[in-house]
Amino acid sequence: MNAAELFVRSLETEGVKYVFGVPGEENLDVLEALRTSTIAFVATRHEQSAGFMAATVGRLTGKAGVALSTLGPGATNLVTAAAYAQLGAMPMVMITGQKPIKKSKQGAFQIVNVVELMRPVTKFAKTIVTADAIASSTREAFRRAEEERPGAVHLEIPEDIAAEEAFGEPFEPKKVRRAVAEEKAILEAVRMIQSARRPLILVGAGANRKMTAKMLRAFVDKTGIPFFNTQMGKGVIDERHPLFIGTAAFSYSDYVHCAVSAADLIVNVGHDVIEKPPFIMTQKREQKVIHVNFTPASVDPIYFPDHEVVGDIANAVWQMGERIEPQPHWDFAPFLSARTKLRAHLEENARDGSFPLKPQRIVADMRKAMPDDGILCLDNGMYKLWFARQYEAYAPNTLLLDNALATMGAGLPSAIAAALLYPERRVVALCGDGGFLMNSQEMETAVRLGIRLTVVLVNDNGYGMIKWKQQSVHLPSFGLDFGNPDFVKYAEAYGAKGYRVGRADDLGELLRKTADLPGVHLIEVPVDYSENDRVFNKELKQIVC
């Protein structure tokens, strides 16, 4: 066999089910090997979308997704997706082609140093220069991508190397047990929690692992300590839990921060400082913070924990749970008071009948329409803050949002990947008009694949989040408005079904209508973003805890 065939056999050994991408002539040997393999190749309409899909496979399964591109412009189009996976801790392997490296007749045509380009946004980047290195390099790439902290890796396979004769077999993946936290660190954490008067748990993205979620739920149920989460920690514990306080969509000045400010100890489980900070630490504070994570804390001016429990998070939470006992002096009244006020606040305008729809009504209608295990994939825009604060996630990975790179354009590709992985579950992409049009060409991909998918498009004819920021700093409106196509006709041009909300009750009705229909559906929802200023700039700034 040639090196390309050995490479694809190595992908099969790693358990790869899909490869997403836009091939070029330098990838033809790899493409031919994929044709006769057990792996489904999904041709996308842009390499960035392929990367977003591969990253989402990694996010949902824990096994690295795979994206393929050619050299030059194909590879540079993967850079944003690489940063998306790297910052979001999503395991992904990117494969790019390259001109022959032993003898090329094309000079520097299309040549950029892709490996050096990828190094700042990946865990590992390498050119394979001999067929003998194919199997070992592939195993190393997947190991790096999937081990904690997960992220993006890159392999470059030149055209002549792919065609070389290859010998050997793929390397079998080996299960590696993660190191566990030292007992003294566990005992000190337990002592600090039991000594505190008002301990509070923060659940971050790093806690979004099956066993960690199970151990955290058991810990909360045993101790009765309330918890809140970061945006990417949503759903790790069912947010219908009576001890759930809320989500930190902002860093301060929200109802959940009344609970945070009342805590004298925060047990920070799995938070990654790449996320927008859920709270701000100061050096003069009396409040203590325990860092529980796979790796030590990265200290910066707003995060410098007092104690660290470093090792496998699930094991650390289990060890603490085995040793801890609820304390009679614990006082959670301020936390529960903040929760009650937040609940009342979140009900505002949830049933509002005005048109265009207010964000609160959109969130409420979406929550009613989604089953417990339904997957809602958000693009990036103003609506993300509303959904982070107000949409209750009932299970892990049922609200996919990006609070790390926070890039636009990922919502639709992410939803396509989720629908491929879980055809039996309801999958909805929620996009703004700006983010949707960055990768809207993937509507054709969704229709071609025959998946069941609903796209809810929130339309304000502008870059809504930046307009809100512009308004909040008292600058005149400028440079952020644009026109849009007829989105109903746009969807229909791809072979999808298009609908437009014309009154407040239409969204809920259309979501119910499309729930069990096959095919791809797009629902355009005009939004009234005047609530941004009223709630975020005024109401939240006047909170008295």
Task: State the low-pLDDT regions, or none.
Answer: none
Our measurement of the CA-to-CA distance between the termini, rounded to an integer number of angstroms, reads 69 Å
Strand pairing plus helix content: what structural class?
alpha/beta
- Mean pLDDT rating: 95
Helical proportion, percent range: 25-40%
User: What profile does the largest beta sheet have?
Assistant: 6 strands, parallel
* Annotated CATH homologous superfamily of the largest domain: Thiamin diphosphate (ThDP)-binding fold, Pyr/PP domains
Note the total helix count: 22
Estimated share of beta-strand residues: 15-25%
Descriptive report:
The chain is α/β, with parallel strands linked by helices and 545 residues long. It has helices spanning 3-13, 28-35, 47-61, 73-76, 79-88, 114-118, 134-146, 159-163, 183-195, 210-223, 255-262, 313-323, 333-346, 359-369, 382-390, 411-421, 433-436, 442-449, 464-472, 487-493, 506-514, 530-539; strands at residues 18-22, 40-43, 65-69, 92-98, 124-127, 152-158, 199-203, 227-229, 244-247, 265-269, 288-293, 307-310, 375-378, 399-400, 427-432, 453-459, 497-500, 520-526. It folds into 3 domains: 3-163, 3-Layer(aba) Sandwich (Rossmann fold), CATH 3.40.50.970; 183-336, TPP-binding domain (Rossmann fold, 3-Layer(aba) Sandwich); 347-541, Rossmann fold, CATH 3.40.50. The chain is built from 22 helices and 18 strands. The strands form 3 sheets. It has a 6-stranded parallel β-sheet with strand order 2-1-3-4-6-5, with helices on both faces. The chain has a 6-stranded parallel β-sheet with strand order 9-8-7-10-11-12, with helices on both faces. A 6-stranded parallel β-sheet has the order 14-13-15-16-18-17, with helices on both faces. Helix 1 packs across helix 2 and helix 16 runs parallel beside helix 18 (442-449). The termini are far apart.
